[in-house]
Amino acid sequence: MKRQDFNFELPEELIAQDPLEDRSGSRLLVLDKKTGQVSHHGFREIVQYLEPGDCLVLNDTKVIPARLIGVKEDTGARVEILLLKRREKDVWETLVKPGKKARPGARIRFGEGLLTGEVTGIVEEGNRLVRFRYEGIFEEILDRLGQMPLPPYITHQLKDQTRYQTVYATHSGSAAAPTAGLHFTPKLLRQIEEKGVSIARVTLHVGLGTFRPVKTDDILDHHMHSEYYRIEETECVKINRAKEGGHRVVCVGTTSCRTLESAADENGKLKAGSGWTDIFIYPGYSFKIMDGLITNFHLPESTLIMLVSAFAGREQVLAAYEEAVKEKYRFFSFGDAMLIG
Length: 341
Description:
Strand 1 (27-31) and strand 2 (38-42) form a beta hairpin. This protein has helices at residues 138-145, 186-194, 233-244, 254-263, 303-312, 314-326, and strands at residues 27-31, 38-42, 55-59, 61-63, 67-72, 78-86, 91-97, 107-110, 115-122, 128-134, 171-174, 198-204, 227-231, 249-252, 273-277, 292-296, 337-340. 38% of the residues are buried. It is an alpha/beta fold. It has two domains: 3-63 and 160-340, QueA-like, CATH 3.40.1780.10; 67-145, Beta Barrel (Thrombin, subunit H), CATH 2.40.10. Helix 5 (303-312) crosses helix 6 (314-326).
């Protein structure tokens, strides 16, 4: 299966640069994966597409302000560090720009010395291991010095940092937001629960590898980065109960989907626990748990559009994307949404 099979034309002006004032004011394209039929709605109408007994699954990860700007102690040269994943208490795997200024032994100061980092090693794809030193609590220092790590296709400054968090974000650890969840408001979630839909929460800390383009011609040669997930027993019970009762499990975002599909056994039973997953879902995959998916519009040739194509069929997904372009939907992180079921 070729990377180019998942390409589509996207005018640059359709890439959303700013979040809407009202989270739930975005548009919703509904794709019936059985018929391929597409219809257009407002996101608030999502309530109409959920039935009593269904289970809506949210990823409650919280984005950390993972982008740090510092200077090298010896030269004063500007260095940008992006925290990717915590390896030990004070050791992080990071992406450093420019990498040539971050050889092992290099020391970097942030916030006039409030935080210092030393490059201790180089790992896969040139990522750097950095050991941080500070006084106090690392997370509090990060809140003071760090910036939200917006994707490179967003060039505008984010005025309100909370707009790159879901309203239910709880557990800190992501380098990127689970963006399908950005459309939900507390009011909308209440309406969904009042309809008799159970809401389950899982945690998957989103890594930047999720958004990295596939560079290999054959998608099977692509290497997926691992991401940490956790599912509590109480949430497993909600999800398993819906399945056993013949109801649907609807995932909010590809991250929730990857979490469930990683933690399910071959019989479609979800198990509580935590661990690392590098699951790569592409056409031909048999879904064990997910029955419906709420998701944003993804980058051409990305692993995310491959996952969506595995669920709804490549031809139908590309036809729906073509329709979305024609109707001028807003794309990517701050863009509009799709419901596939």
